Each structure stands twice: as structure tokens, then as C-alpha cells.
Please model this.
Amino acid sequence: MNGMDRIVIEGIGGIGGFGCGVSDLTRALTGSACSPGTFALPTGSGTVTIPAFRADVSRLEEFIPARTLRRIDHFSRLGLLGSYLALADADLPEAERSRVGIIIASGYGATGMTFAFLKSLIEDGDVCASPTCFASSVHNSAAAHISIQLGAKGPNLTVSDYHMSVPSALATARIWLAEERVRRVLFGAIDELSDLIGYIRYRTRDALTAAPMTPLRTEMETPIPGEGAAFLLLAREGAARGGYCTLDASTTGSLPITGGPFPEPGLLVLGADGCRASGRRYAAVARNARVACYTSLYGSMPAGPAFDLAAAALILKGGRVFPSPGAVSLDFPATVPAGGDPVGADRISCLTLSGDDTYGLTTLGRVDSP
Amino acid sequence: MLPLLKHGEVLCTIQRMSVAPIAITGMGCICAAGRNLPDSMEAILRGERNPAAPVRFASNHPVRYPVFEASGFEEPTDLPRTSAFALHAAREAVADAGLDRRTFGALRVGVCIGTTVGTVVSEETFCRGYLAGHVPDMAPIRRILRCNPADVIAREFDLSGPRQTVVTACASGTDAVGIAGSWIRAGLCDAAIAGGADELGRITYIGFISLMITDDSPCKPFDAHRKGLNLGEGAAMLVLASERALRRSGMRARSFLLGYGSAGDGYHQTAPQPDGAGLRSAVSEAMATSGVSPASVAFVNAHGTGTPDNDRVESHVLHDMLPGIPFLSTKGYTGHTLGAAGAIEAVFTAACLEIGKIPANAGFETPDPEIANTPVREVTTVRGTVALSESLAFGGNNSVVVLGKS
Model:
């Protein structure tokens, strides 16, 4: 993709445990308290309450009439709210909305509807299984609702690669813009915390305690499940109307990272989510780097890397690093700048690790950088 | 020139220029028609099809809807059936391309796979146990999370390039092929294994029945008496390669991926836009990027599910945009294989171009007065160097690839 215009992040829309919109996200990043809520999870031995970063989608009614929302499930509502927030943040004119391409990344998809369909099938029988739940259970249901509400008739893609969904989908977003398929891509990552995912998280983690997430302390197991949506409106630099930063590169591959460790790492934002095993891998890859980590503001979820990108974009726009929550007394073999420190370079990279050897690396730059 | 879009629709993608063709050096396929591509092609050209009530799973639904199972395929216990299909087809495609681990090692190879169920984190036995208040075994969930089809293929061949699992419902396989082509043109990788895979299971079977779009008899795409689709399962994979990869590996182009287009309807979750505007945009983009004229199109492998809505919309678009060009649906031989469909139909399209003939549109007998054109009714010799393969999907996704003869 040599020679193409740079890509600019024009708008950000985010909802999660921290709140709703750029102002809430900035407030959380700046250091306001952001405590997890709870999730009442039915299990075989009764209801268990686990900590969780839940997202409140009630503000969606500012954009879409409540009547229209009646048959739209939580997963798609997350996507719709993220979309409208990003478009509003970029102040994109109505007339331009129908011309955006849509790319959605989701680790788990519409699991609430998937489970609801299974429940209808199991409890009501094969003849009475719910067609509404089945139709809404497809992974691309949120992308469909977004395109319907926006009247967007451009290319429309949904990608699901678990924890690598965001960097994988971003690579294709960059290509769409490079190929000039579209002038803008509305890129979003969505994951919901359904009963099914909550139960799977409950069963697969050593502990789900209410203790704060400390992803930069690798001796501790502190993941707290999250849900939410983070959307970025991307445009070629020539077409962009201002913006937060540039999206310079997005690559995925197998470790070790070739040509690295990292391109001019003014700061490396880590997707570490409090899981001990993955935390150790992050520590090994990011050894001696200058790092930050903000996952404890939105929780552990495959969509998390999109929130990392939003945080990095806000840092580049403001020129100052946000404090990494829970970084006191860390055992992480890297430098963690204090809140308010200058970024110190023109670029920030966001690192996502998955499994034993897979990585995603996305690099953002200052709009006025060379 | 292509006809203009109908009904005042504006082509919302930027006007595209033609792009460089990408070589297809290997193909593999497994479906109800056969365990590999040559067997499948022989079967569909003989007109064989064997839809039957499902054997691999039970249902207490009083109607036994016919399906197209890939009979005789037993997946290894450590892989979900979808990933096992994907791997089976990938091995055939890689062997067909003349590749081995050594030649792969010299290339940066990506994997782009379309699926609908391959990344769904649910399993009926697990959910039954959970709902019953038991503590269900986590093994099926762990296996799903470990065995995303793109990851399985990348691990098998030790590939270091980009990986992506496309989940645009029934357009997934077509999108995966088109996206992999873009990766290669953009230099993200030298070559790619691209395609689609999906298994047929109880959940999908009951789900489609609940939507009342399944036919209780063998499906009849484009027929006046069509009542819906029959589900199928399987996978198909293509090895795509850059010029550089051809030089370095000694692979030869079997055919070409010439163009790709996709567009959303922005209309409805499960029904196609009645005027087919999204499909028209996708066809326009695919034709524009391929740089070919309608006169060189030998045939169209249509989505042709056999549902009243799909076939009506699709045939009108074909009649308007590619009038007089032979078209068919191969779903009468394979069933609707969902995320695999676009890939299976792409390899059938390329294989048909190679031999210069297409099979009959199985199940078609009676022309529909609402449809202006009719599919081919018998094995037909085709002339022309390119062909289109189309996919329409839930969510309003429309995707088209243009394939060319070597």
C-alpha cells in the first residue's frame, strides 16, 4: 500500500463500563474512578454474581426512536450506538452517511441471540424455535442494522477472529481505503456479555474477583469481563475533515514480530487484560519498551483492542499520556509513564497478543507528523 | 458498457478502475456432490443429486426436510466439523497447486476463510447442560475457541501471513476470496488460501425451518414452484498467488480472479432488497474491477437458493445487467452450504470455464412468469473467457467475483 494517502481517524464512538462517548472515555482515562459493576449469572449451583464492565445503551434513543429499537437486540444496539457516536463525533453530514463502508470486528458475535435461539429450541421444541432469535444470531446482524439505519449501501463486512478480530479487520479497512472502494470506513468492534459468554468466562478463569484489574502485574489473575463497542470513522487524509490521528499500519502475524521490535515506539499500548498467562507473553514481547495499558477501564473482551486504539488516538490528539490504572508496584519489565507525561514521539503502537504466538500491531501517528 | 443502475440508485462505491488479475493455482472442494473437486464436477455434470433427510443428527420436527450432507466424511475428534472440512479442502487445493511445506516456507501466505458457524461459540449439548443446571463439560467450547478455521489452516501449513475469518453470512465465502485477492494486490502477502467452510447441524437446520424458507422437497432454484432452500455442508478452497509467488514457487495459473465487488442492501435483516440495488452495485463493481465487458462473460453461477424472494430479485438483476448470458444455480447439487457456498460455487465456476461447459440447473422444470429469464436446463457448452459467481446473504450482503480462464 505504498504511496497511498494516509488514513485519518475522524471520529470516535465508544461505550463500555466507563460510560458513553468520547467525553466519558477521556474522563476515565484521565483518572476518574471506573469501577466494574456486577453481572448476575445463573449457574447450576444458583445465581453467581461476578464483576463485569457492562455497557448502558440507553443513549441510543437520542439517535433512533424507541419504537424502532423494540426488536433490536443488545449486541446490535451496542453497534448502533457506537456508530452514531462516532459519526456525531466526526460531525459527518447526513448525506455522507450512506456512502461509508462498514467493517465490524467481533470476537464472539451476537451470543445473546445465539443462546436465546438455543434456549427456545431446547425449552420449546424443534417446532417452536424462535425465528426472530435465529435471524438475529448471525454474526453480521449488527452490521446489517447499522447499514439499515444509516442507509449505508457500500461494502459491508464482519470479521470474527476472537482476540485478533480488531487488527485483522483493520487491515482490510486500510485496503478498502487504499483501493478507493469507499471514501470512508465506519470501523467498529463489538462484544456483548451475554449469559453464555458470562458463564464461559466464569468456567474458564481461575478467579473472577471484584479486585481491580492489574494487567501489568503478571503474577496476578485479575481479568474482569467487559462488553461494549468502540467505533472509529476512518477516511483517507485527502478526504478527512480534521481528526485525531493517522492510522499508519495494521499488521498481524506470528511472533516474533519481524522488523521490530516496534516502529519508533513513542508508546506501546498493551492489550493485556489481566490474564496471567497472556500477561507474561506481553511482558516478554514488550520488555524494555515504554508501555501503557488501559484495559482495566473497559474490561477483558475481544473488542478491547479497539478501545486501546481510541485511547491512543486521544493521547496523540492531546499530546499527553494517560496514567495506566493499577500500575503501582508492578512487576512488568517495562517503563510505564505517569499520567500527563508527554507522548515523546510522533507515533503510538497498540499491541494485541492471542494464543501462544499470534500478534496484531497497529500504529497510529500524529496528524501533523511527517 | 454496463447498463446503469436501476430505480435511480446511486452506485455508492467510488467508480472503480480495473485491478491486476490474481492467479488461482490450486482448488479443492468437499460437498454432497463429492469428496474432491474432480469428483464433484463429474457428479454435477452427470446431473446427480441426493438430497435426503438428515442422517447425522435427529430432530423431532414432524417434517423431514431434505438436506445435502457430505456423507462418509468423518472429522477427526480434535476438530470441529467445519474446520475439518476447511482443512480437507485446503489440502486438496495446496496439492493441486503443487505446493509443499518447503515452497510455502519461502512465501508469506495468508489465510482468509468465510464461515457462518465456524466461529460461533455455542454448542447444543453444552447449552442443554447449562440450562438444566448441570456443570457441562467445557471441552466443546474450548475446542471451538481453539479451532477457528483460518487458524487451523494456518497452523497446518505453518503460515505466517495475515489471517481472517469472514462472517458475512451466506456471502462469506465469496467475500473471503475477494478480500484475499486484495491482500495480495496490496502486498500484505504473496499468496493466500481463501475459501469457505460450514457444517450442517441441528441448530442451523431448525433455524432455517423456523424461518419458513426451506423446501420439504428437493430444491428447485428459479422454478415457478420453488418453495425454499435445502441446506448443505462442505468447503472449498483456492490458492491465490501473486506474480512474485508464481516465479518463486514454480506454481502455474489454473485460472484467474479478475474482479470482486460487494455492497450492502441497507434494507432488511433476512430479505433481499426487492429492486436488487445492492446486488446491482456488487455486480457493477466486480465487472469494473475485472475490466471485462459483458460480451466476454460465458455464464453466471447465480446464488439461486430456491427461495421465492432470492431467485426473483437475482434473476431480474441478471436480466437487466447481463441479458442473454446463460446462468444457473449449482445449489440443486450441493444444497445451500451457507458460508461455504460462495467458495464452492467459485471453484465450480472456474472448473466449468476450464472445460467450457456448465451443468443443468438442477430442479428447474417450470418457468416462473414473474421471472423474465430461465436458467440452463441441460449441460450446456459455453463460450467466453470469464464468468461470475454471485452470493446474497442475510444482513443484505451481496458479493460477486469475476473469474477468468487461464
Chain A is about 30% helix and 25% strand.
